[in-house]
Structures are given as C-alpha cells and as structure tokens.
Amino acid sequence: MTKRIHVLEDDGDIRYIIEYLLKNEGYELQLSSSVSELKSKLRDALPDLFIIDVMLPDGNGIEICDDLKSDMFTKHIPVIVMSANPRSKQMSSQVCADDYISKPFDLEDVLTRINNLLLKKSA
C-alpha cells in the first residue's frame, strides 16, 4: 500500500524539491503552504507521516507538532520538523517530534529519515 506524506512548507521551491523527491520514491503526497490549508486537508484523509516547517505564514510548526501529538486521531503519526533555526531542534524534541531536519538538507538524508520512521511505524 502506498504511504501518504503530508508536507507543510510555505517555501514553494523547497516544497517542490520535496514533492519531486518523494514522488520519485513512490509516495503519495498532500501539500500545504499554511496551517489553515493543512487543517482543511486533514479532514479528507490522514497521512502516514508529516513533514512540517517551523516558520509559517499563519502559525508555528512547533505548535502544530504539539497539537498533532496531543490529538487522539493524529498522535500515532510520525512528525518530522524542518527548520533553518538551530534552536528549533531542541524545541521540536520538547513537543515529541519524531525527527528533525536542519535546512539546508541533504536529499538522501531526508529519504533515509522518512523511510526509517515509516518502517518503525509499520513494525
């Protein structure tokens, strides 16, 4: 069964790179550029994994991660937080993010982290 990944990233170029990378790996994608768009799309279908940027036009990815991990419908879904701010790594672990990716990122590293989390979830 194809795994679905929801990417919340407001930078169109970064969103495109992640989309291209993950589609080539056979993942199904949901893409959002804002928190409100994410919430709207979650009503339709839940993903198998979230990738969330920290700095967003209408919210903070750390707070979104905390909300997802506190919600009974989404707390089991792995969350990867992405940021260019080194302080975000510590903050993301405090809200139970499953992983953290520092920007700029290595594409192979991103794939490895995603695959590891999805394998762990399946086990």
TrEMBL record:
The keyword Cell cycle does not apply. The modification 4-aspartylphosphate is found at residue 53. The keyword Transmembrane does not apply. Keywords: Phosphoprotein. It comes from the Bacteria. Pfam families: Response_reg (PF00072). One of its GO terms (biological process) is phosphorelay signal transduction system. Residues 4-118 form the Response regulatory domain. PANTHER family: RESPONSE REGULATORY DOMAIN-CONTAINING PROTEIN (PTHR44591:SF3), STRESS RESPONSE REGULATOR PROTEIN 1 (PTHR44591). This is Response regulator receiver domain-containing protein. The lineage of its organism: Bacteria, Pseudomonadati, Bacteroidota, Sphingobacteriia, Sphingobacteriales.
